[in-house]
Structure formats: structure tokens, C-alpha cells
Amino acid sequence: DSFNYGKVSAGTASSTLTLFGETGITAINDGNVIETFYIQGADTACPWTLVTGSPGSGQYRHEFCNMAGGCSSYPANYTAMTTNYLDSELATGVAKEGGTVDFQLRITVPSSTSCYDPESIDVTIVAVGP
What we know:
It is a single chain. Helices cover 3% and strands 36% of the residues. By secondary structure, it is mainly beta. The strands form two sheets. Strands 1, 2, 4, 5, 6 and 8 form a six-stranded mixed sheet that branches. It has a three-stranded antiparallel sheet with strand order 7-3-9, with no helix packed on it. It is globular, with a radius of gyration of 15 Å. The two termini are 26 Å apart.
């Protein structure tokens, strides 16, 4: 799926809470085994570099929150993504054949950038079975 955060001013943040409300984004296990879901971010083509700390020039921070833990109050339960999925566990024990995980995302864009065209930012959910 894809969505649009909309225009986000330099050095500020936006969240999917405003887009998806309390339902969040849903990831579905359509496999036939119980799985652990991981989530990973990516550097962008511009480039913007994904960081886990405070973003500077040409850097951005992308965070996730599993709705089971509550996501309405930032920064509680939000975790910064990295480009390595093993760093960011979204959920464990996701039931086979239709189990779901609801989550939210939050992005903080660079304080300054040399890129003025819209950015496309990938987020990948990786499902790992036993």
C-alpha cells in the first residue's frame, strides 16, 4: 500500500495518526505459519539518509508504533527504524492465515535539504517464520 504524508515543513514531523486514526495501518499474515513481523526503513533516492537520532541536513527519522501498545501519545511506544529489518521488531506470534498487526508511522524530515521534489520513502514489513 502507499499513502501521502502531505507537505511536511523542514525539521518538522508528521504521523499516520492523522491519516488512519486509531485503526492504523494493517499488516496481514497470509502465510500458513505463525510469524514474527519486522519493519525496516530505507534511504531515499534524493538522497535523504535514515537516522535513529535527531535528523540534520539531508537526514530523516522514521518511527513505528504497534497499536497494541498505544500510539496516540508521542514518543511513548515509538521506535526509530533502521535499514536493517532485524533491528526493528514490529510484532511476534502473528497468527497464521489472517493474523494482523496494526501500526502507525511517524516521520521527521530533514532540517534542510537540497531536494525540492516530493520524496518517495519505502517501508518494508518482513515476515519470518519458525
